[in-house]
Amino acid sequence: MSAFLSFSEVIRWPVLAIAILAAVVGSQAVITGTFSMIKQCTSLGCFPRVKIVHTSAQVHGQIYIPEINWILMILCLAVTIGFRDTKHLGNASGLAVITVMLVTTCLMSLVIVLCWHKSIFLAIGFIVFFGTIEALYFSAALIKFREGAWVPIVLAFVFMMVMCIWHYGTIKKYEFDLQNKVSINWLLGLSPNLGIVRVRGIGLIHTELDSGIPAIFSHFVTNLPAFHQVLIFMCIKNVPIPHVSPNERFLVGRIGPKEYRIYRCIVRYGYHDVQMDDQEFEKDLVCSVAEFIRSGGGASKANGLTPGVVDRDEERMTVVASGRMRMLEDEGLGGAAASESTVGPSRAARGEREIQSPSPSPTPTPAPATGVRKRVRFVLPASTPRPNAGVEEELRELTDAREAGMAFILGHCYVKAKTGSSFLRRLVINFGYDFLRRNSRGPNYAVTVPHASTLEVGMIYYV
Question: Where exactly are the transmembrane stretches of this chain (predicted)?
């Protein structure tokens, strides 16, 4: 206030306007820099997952994080109300600014050596010259530690502790996933002698692994020795581009021999793509698998594969273009017959072919969770060559599984410290990481999973 009153009345209000504009520019720079750093830390697994909103389709770095914005607002109000004195605020701001400059100088010396490949003596001279000046200012700011300069030190310590706990827990969880990842040989070793039963329907297993079989699936099969006649391991990937073309969205591969009917699908989304609802997503996913089967993807490798032997080429993914094969679903028991009698001849006249499930068996099939029976058919264009018997049989089985319904299998893991771990490790894992995991956002699934068809499998990771 005294500095404000020191100006004459003629220039007092213009100076106030300039000061307000400078504060707005400075606060916007702090907010933008915080958003950028939080996004980079989240990408590196050093910060809990938060909601990141991309506000521009052209500029990838233009983002907004609601949770961080609210935290910044609360901290600013808390510091302002707590100090009520511009002197203490100035001491805190001064220590924060000089600390950033000192850290930047130290990191710049590493850039000179590692990125620019200059002489190490040049880096030493750089840090000695600029670091000495900044270290003097830093020592002068530390004198005001009790008069407000302690605030940035405390905040930095809290955020560093959060980042270290989250990074440590994430690394231990990832190491557990790698060590307990199920091999394809284990899957091929499953036989009817072990009591494994294949039930009708499609099992869609969400996983964050883009290779191998997650440990959650072995946990599920061990406790409930049954899985669906068609299994799809789905992994959602967010790529740093605005939009992903529908023809490049789905990458489909085969796991094991074709008789096992197990597939892997990687779904790619840009940061400005509108995520589809569950029905549209299910239809596109099944169509992409059907197109992969029709094109003969992985057939040459899978047919010649002997049980217990895995070829690494089997894990190759294929980009499946959508639109060539259509899937029709007729609701109700009478809808299929009516559709076949009215629509069928027109398609036959155009040369289109239909592939549908085999004739239903006399044994009644339970209706899906929605209570509506569906008749599913694949419509192939006239220019498409007729598929061979093996491909047509696989497509028919896929339609039969689609008619039975789709179940969404979600993994929910709890990370716990091993028995006999140190007190610090148990404190970090059982309390710190567990608290952050419960209060952060979960994995980003591209589909709104219907509750009636959801099966959540819980598993404890002892790290």
Answer: 63-83, 95-114, 120-143, 150-169
Same domain (yes/no): 130, 279: no
* CA-angle at 94, arms to 92 and 96, nearest 5°: 70
**Is the predicted pLDDT of residue 453 greater than 90, yes or no?**
no
Compute CA distances 288 → 47, 251, 293, 320, 354, whole Å.
35, 8, 9, 6, 16
Residue 157 is encoded by which pair of tokens?
Answer: 């310590």
3-state helix, strand, coil in the chain (%, to 5): 55, 20, 30
CA distance 157 to 134: 21
At residue 444, what are phi and psi to the nearest 5 degrees?
Answer: -90, 105
Q: In the chain, how many domains are there? A: 3
The yes-or-no verdict on residue 169 having pLDDT over 70 is yes
pLDDT digits (tens, 9 = 90+) for 29-83: 889 989 989 988 888 888 998 888 888 777 777 889 999 999 999 998 999 898 8
Asked if residue 215 and residue 163 are part of one domain, the reply reads no
- According to DSSP, the residues that pair with 203 across neighbouring strands are 231, 407
What are the backbone dihedrals phi and psi of residue 406, each rounded to the nearest 5 degrees, phi first? -120, 130
Q: Of 330, 376, 353, 359, which is closest to residue 201 (Cα–Cα)? A: 376
CA dist 4 and 14 (Å) reads: 11
Find, among 206, 369, 401, the residue nearest to 290 by Cα: 401
End-to-end CA gap in the chain:
56
Give the pLDDT score at 302.
41
CA distance 341 to 117: 74
What is the SS3 string spanning 292-348? HHHCCCCHHHHHCCCCCCCCHHHHCCEEECCCCCEEEEEECHHHHHHHHHHCHHHHH
Q: Tell me the whole-structure pTM to 2 decimals.
A: 0.73
pLDDT of residue 177: 80
Containing domain of residue 135, as a range? 87-179
Asked if residue 199 belongs to a domain, the reply is yes
Alpha-carbon distance 254 to 251, whole Å? Answer: 11
What distances in angstroms separate CA 162 from CA 68, 153, 436, one per listed residue?
Answer: 14, 14, 8
Determine the distance from the C-alpha atom of residue 280 to the mean position of all C-alpha atoms in its chain, rounded to a whole number. Answer: 20
pLDDT tens for 403-413 read 888 888 888 88
Q: Strands 454-462 and 406-416: what pairing?
A: parallel
